Amino acid sequence: MKAFAYEGAHALDAFAITLRDLPEPAIGPKDLLVSVKAFAFNPVDYKIRQSRSAGENGPVILGWDAAGVVEKIGPEVEGFKPGDEVYYAGELGRAGSYAEKQAVDYRLVAPKPKSIGFADAAALPLTALTAYEALLERGISYGKDSHALIIGGAGGVGSIAIQLLKALTPATVIATATRPETVEWARRMGADHVIGRSLREELERIGAPEVDAIFATTHTLDYLPIIPELLRPFGHLMVIDDPETLNIRHFKSKAQSVHWEFMFSKSLHGYRPESQGAMLRHVAELVDAGKVQTTLSQTLAASSDNIRAAHAALEAGAAIGKIAIEWR
Question: Which domains can be identified in the chain, with CATH numbers?
Answer without folding.
Answer: 2-124+271-326 (3.90.180.10), 128-260 (3.40.50.720)
